[in-house]
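User: My collaborator sent over this chain with a note saying "see what the structure looks like." That's all I know about it. Can you take a look?
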Amino acid sequence: MLLGINANLTPDLLHSLAAMGHGDQIAIVDCNFPSATCARRVYYLPGLDAVAMLEAVLSVLPLDTFVPSPSASMQVVGDAAAIPPAVQDFAAVLARVGFKPPEMLERFAFYEAAKQTFAIVQTGERRPYGNIILTKGVI
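Assistant: Without extra context I'll predict from the sequence alone. Here is the result:
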């Protein structure tokens, strides 16, 4: 255990977060996401929801301020204007740290973006569309 580190951050995940460089991305996804298909590195944390994991990651990871949107979530299939409850919760967490809501990507565009991430954290989030990609900034 370490002082001041969110207990939801495992040693391996902390190592990946520290190893990421400016502009690298990490995805936090729900329990239905095809992580094994998309990930170079995947961390399974089925006991946590995606919002708790987002809060934990943002406690140590700076978001990129040099891009229009340092976060992205998945659009609702068939209703691009809808904002699912999980994404509303992501937006509230992002607002608390001074960022706007996530950019919304079409489902397959989100999958392609996830394939480019440094790592994927698969949570036990059961709400649909509980997926977000974060772009690391600088300190």
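A starting point for your reply to your collaborator: The chain has a mean pLDDT of 97.
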